[in-house]
Amino acid sequence: MAGGRRNSSKSGCSKAQHVEDRSSNTNESENQVSSQLSHPKHVPLPDIPTDSELLFEIVSLLFGSIALGSQYLNLYRTVWWLPHSHTEYALNFYLINPHEVLFCIILIGRRLQLSLFKKFCFKCLPTSLQVTGLQISRIFVISTEIPFILWCSYYILLQHGTLSVFCLGYPVIVYLILFGPTILPLFELQSSSQERAMSPKSRAALAKSGILLMNHVCSVSAEVIREEVEMLKTDFNGRLKQVLFNSLSVAYYCGFVPCCFVQNTLYYDLTWVAQHVGFVWLSSFTMYIVFCFPPRYCDTLHRAALHLGRWQKVEMRNTLIPYNVWSDSTIWHQGALVKYTKELFRAEGISNAAEPGNLTHTRFYAIFSNPMGALSSLLGLQITLVGIQLVVLIRSYEWNHIISIALLLLLNFLTLFKIARQYLVLGKIYHIEQLSQERVGG
């Protein structure tokens, strides 16, 4: 019995020593990984001018009014210059429903009133009252604009019947699919232009009220990096939904709705009208993209992607390759080989905090690790749009076609200038950053 106790004590000591050896080996491997780690180097961005929220809403209302007026010009134009013409105006105004026009204008400029109140709150009110003033402004704007929309819908219903209500309310279905049963995204865009003009106390107050301000923090914690990426991904998806819904709604109410309420006896060029709807949608899409994704916000996504990194799956043909077991608390260096869920993965980024095999992390790194790719695509789209409109303008000979396409071109040239300026400035900056990253990676 005594010998049995001595044997058991020896075996217990050997097991404890084995556990200590494994823990020491793990600590040594983690220390080796941390010693080989080099963090990404960020190049600071210059102050690239961007539109304020109030200025953007004014331009957006101007663009929607021009698009709506141009479509009415395509539908109800006259030949008033002929000697025997029975009209003195360029449009048959008596055929246009004023409630329909007012309905479209209210929906296009629904955010302008709130932008004015927000500007007043951030400039005139003390910091302690800004959040309360902003909430009161939202309630006031929503409670005043919705009755006007319902009032216009009622008179349109009396003139055009029940089917007109479904025609006017069709974008509501798209809105519910994208945003769910909430009304705030209908009256407010997510932007960072006004956030930069706020004081630190205002930022803290808004953060307490639930409004998130997107700022990148260079963290050395893998969990913090993944949480930041998750927050940025959610915010990016919300902004993208705003871009898609608002661009489609502008094209719908400024281009398609006027065609739904035309008289059955009215003849118009269907091809040109449909082309106008397409031009309005693409123009508003690029305009909203430029505003909702300013350079500093895109740089925040880019910096988070550099810290997140990416894993590439490796085929397990040679089982003798040395590797580490992936740990969620470790930031892995470039080229590190880890095993996760019985599969091998190799780190491709300078800093790698992503989860191997996580498609969300892989897509985030693929999209935002090179921000010039998306900007080049946007610039190419805008150049193509402007080029097509120039060709259409040169080949047009009717006066209403020339006016409508020329007015859209003026606003598209403004958007093209903003995109080209960002492309030239950011291209040089990210080229310098890439050279510094290559030195660090080498």
Short description:
With 442 residues, the chain is mainly alpha-helical. It is 69% helix and 4% strand. The N and C termini lie far apart (63 Å).
Describe the protein's architecture and organization.
- This protein is mainly α.
- The protein contains 15 helices and six strands.
- A four-stranded mixed sheet has the order 1-5-4-2, with no helix packed on it. Strands 3-6 form a two-stranded antiparallel sheet.
- β4 (337-340) and β5 (343-347) form a beta hairpin.
- It is elongated, with a radius of gyration of 29 Å.
Number of helices: 15
Helix content: 55-70%
Shape type: elongated
With strands numbered from the N-terminus, the spatial order across the biggest sheet is 1-5-4-2
What fraction of the residues are assigned to beta strands by DSSP?
Answer: under 5%
Which regions have little confidence, pLDDT < 50, spanning 5+ residues? 1-30, 191-200, 205-212
- Summed over residues and divided by their number, the pLDDT gives a mean of 82
Q: How many beta-strand segments? A: 6
Encode the helix/strand succession as letters: HHHHHHHHHHHHEEEEEEHHH
Q: Measure the end-to-end span.
A: 63 Å
